[in-house]
Design brief:
mainly alpha
Length: about 90
């Protein structure tokens, strides 16, 4: 018993028929094309992961910059309020 009820001999016969129909050169080219497609897919996935990581880092930096800017605005507002209170006296 082989793969899912298919014996080794049945697989060999199917492989022989495929080689007779397509020829070894065409099968070799098909294998190379399939390998290139898989390689390209993996590269695209890695590029996407790197892009996501870069975006996360940029968002962290922007959030830190926003926090610093907000703190600066709060300080400026406090100074304006203090000046207004001083001028009212």
């Amino acid at each position: 018993m082989g793969f899912g009820g298919i014996s080794i001999w049945q697989l060999v016969i199917v492989l022989g028929i495929v080689v007779l129909l397509f020829g070894t050169k065409k099968l070799r080219n098909l294998g190379g094309d399939l390998g290139s497609a898989v390689k390209g897919f993996k590269k695209a996935m890695n590029d996407d992961e790197q892009k996501d990581a870069t975006e996360v880092e940029e968002n962290k930096k922007l959030t830190a910059d926003d926090a610093a800017f907000t703190k600066q605005d709060d300080t400026t507002e406090a100074a304006k309020d203090k000046a207004k209170v001083d001028s009212d006296k």
